[in-house]
Design a protein that fits this description.
147 residues, mainly alpha, extended
Length: 147
C-alpha cells in the first residue's frame, strides 16, 4: 500500500480531514456513523440473507441480480473459516481470494509471493480471469494431492 502513490495520496487527503496531529494518541481517536448510516449498512449487508429467510412468506418476491455477489459471500465465508480454524486456505479459497482482489483491483493485502499472480489476474478480462483461475485451482489441487 505504501508503494502505491494513488493510495498514499488518498490517505494524505483523508488525514487532512481528521482532527488529529503529531501528538494524538490512538485512544483519543474514535470513528462512528450516524444511526441512519448504520441502518443502511446493515440493511445492505443482510439483504440476501433476509430475502432467503423470508422467502416462505412471499414466494413471488424477486431479488435483483445486481444485488447478489456470490464472490463476496464466499469471501466472507473464507474470512469466517480463517478466523475460526486458523488454517491455511485450500487451493480453491486461495484462488478465489486472489480472483476477488484482482477483480476489485485491490492488491494491498496480497503477500509479496502472490503479487505476480495478482498482477497477471488484474490484467486479464473477466472470462480469461475465470479460465485462468479454474486452471490454477486444478494445478494446485493436483500438486496438493501428489504431496
Amino acid at each position: 500500500m505504501a508503494e502505491n502513490p494513488a493510495v498514499m495520496a488518498e490517505i494524505a487527503r483523508l488525514a487532512e480531514l481528521l482532527p488529529i496531529g503529531p501528538d494524538s494518541r490512538i485512544e483519543d481517536v474514535t470513528a462512528s456513523v450516524g444511526i441512519d448510516g448504520e441502518k443502511k449498512y446493515w440493511k445492505a449487508r443482510h439483504k440476501i440473507a433476509n430475502f432467503l429467510k423470508h422467502a416462505d412468506k412471499d414466494s413471488d418476491a424477486l431479488l435483483a441480480e445486481q444485488d447478489v455477489d456470490n464472490a463476496n459471500l464466499l469471501i466472507q465465508a473464507i474470512g469466517a473459516y480463517l478466523d475460526l480454524l486458523h488454517r491455511q486456505l485450500l487451493p480453491e479459497g486461495l484462488v478465489l481470494w486472489l480472483f476477488v482482489c484482482a477483480r476489485d483491483n485491490d492488491g494491498s493485502a496480497v503477500p509479496e509471493r502472490f503479487q505476480p499472480t495478482f498482477a497477471l489476474l488484474s490484467k486479464l478480462g473477466a472470462e480469461e480471469r475465470h479460465e485462468f483461475c479454474s486452471a490454477m485451482i486444478k494445478k494446485l489441487s493436483e500438486r496438493a494431492s501428489a504431496a
